[in-house]
Amino acid sequence: MKNLMIAAGIMLLFASACNSEKKDNFKDSTSVDTTTLPTDTTATKPVDSATMMKAWEDYMKPGNEHEMLSKSVGNWEAAISFYAPDGSLASTSSGIKAETKMVLGNRYQQSTYKGEMNGMPFEGMNTIAFDNAKKVYISTWIDNMGTGLTYAEGNFNEARKTMIFKGTATDAVSGKQIPFREVFTIVDDNNQLMEMYDTKDGKEVKTMSIRLVRK
Questions:
Q1: What parts of the sequence cross the membrane (predicted)?
Q2: CA atoms of 151 and 169, how far apart (whole Å)
Q3: 97-127 burial by CB neighbour count: b if 16+ within 10 A, else e?
């Protein structure tokens, strides 16, 4: 692993040097005038190779947060509910199967869902990561009920066993991005609850929930 990291670091340093040389030698009379574009005036301090290697080793190493995510590994049964704008329950689809596993060397939690939702075949996939550098949890979701991807970041409240994510999702009607809040609660070792709230016209409303029971 040390040799791999050192090799990667050398490649990064070499690429950086090559890019710098290309910028110095390249002149294009048709290049865009960037005098009106914002520039980053923050001074960049040079980083030695040892510091770079240590940073990448820390970034890629699974920690306590990843171990916590691994406790959800197993098979679950999910009930997915949707709510009307007034907060009343609109529909519930139960009996959906979910499998949770850790992937890529226990660095990411991946959950796959399969079943029927409102009489239609349903498949979905959720990934949860903990970014060692940003110190945040990251959640993504895709399913066969759309063609977009939701992305959210959040933190874990150890006392309440709750993750609170905030992100954006596509409104299929308007095509615009709408903010949402996701509350994921670890009720106990065998029960979990995810609740989603959308914000429309400045008002937050509950739109969906997923109850998970370990099998």
A1: none
A2: 7
A3: ebebebeeeebbbbbebebebeeeebebebe
| C-beta of residue 198 within 8 angstroms of C-beta of residue 180 | yes
The full set of domain ranges for the chain reads 65-214
| 3-class DSSP assignment, residue 62 | coil
Per-residue pLDDT reduced to its tens digit, 64-77: 999 999 999 999 99
What is the pTM (predicted TM-score) of this model?
Answer: 0.78
- Report which secondary-structure segment, H or E, holds 4: helix 2-25
Note whether 127 and 140 are within 8 A (CB): yes
- Cα–Cα dist 214/191, whole Å: 6
Architecture of domain 65-214: Beta Barrel (2.40)
